[in-house]
């Protein structure tokens, strides 16, 4: 059999061997359902990628990032959303009228080894709220330049960083089982 892999590198530090392999990232596909006098409206919180980042600068993106040493994927998810948007997912889950998703287990593992070699864990999370919480990034402007709430249809109509608009559509269709005719 022929395989397309290359051996992982390693470094020796303090008498221990540490393997260097593909990176794991978490991606929060957040959808907020706001019910008001206009009915149910769907919003997505986005962060604009800052000039200090290596890829997709200036594009809007879903919150996400690398799994750090000694943290679970659930902890990484909570941390990345808090750092990039200032949202506390545990508080939102506890205070939402309804919540759909899982803060510990990803719905989907994307492992196509393109360019960045990342393995990305997708976490679709939907919250039913009375009002949209404020967005307040906790990282420097060179990482997240600004944040915004955007309604779902304009979100998926634009070219988001890393094709995030396609990931949102995928989650709507396959995870939430929305009828295809209702997906913007």
UniProtKB/TrEMBL annotation:
<dbReference type="InterPro" id="IPR000086">
    <property type="entry name" value="NUDIX_hydrolase_dom"/>
</dbReference>
<feature type="domain" description="Nudix hydrolase">
    <location>
        <begin position="24"/>
        <end position="173"/>
    </location>
</feature>
<comment type="similarity">
    <text>Belongs to the Nudix hydrolase family.</text>
</comment>
<keyword id="KW-0378">Hydrolase</keyword>
<dbReference type="InterPro" id="IPR015797">
    <property type="entry name" value="NUDIX_hydrolase-like_dom_sf"/>
</dbReference>
<protein>
    <submittedName>
        <fullName>NUDIX hydrolase</fullName>
    </submittedName>
</protein>
<dbReference type="Pfam" id="PF00293">
    <property type="entry name" value="NUDIX"/>
</dbReference>
<dbReference type="GO" id="GO:0016787">
    <property type="term" value="F:hydrolase activity"/>
</dbReference>
<dbReference type="InterPro" id="IPR020084">
    <property type="entry name" value="NUDIX_hydrolase_CS"/>
</dbReference>
<dbReference type="InterPro" id="IPR020476">
    <property type="entry name" value="Nudix_hydrolase"/>
</dbReference>
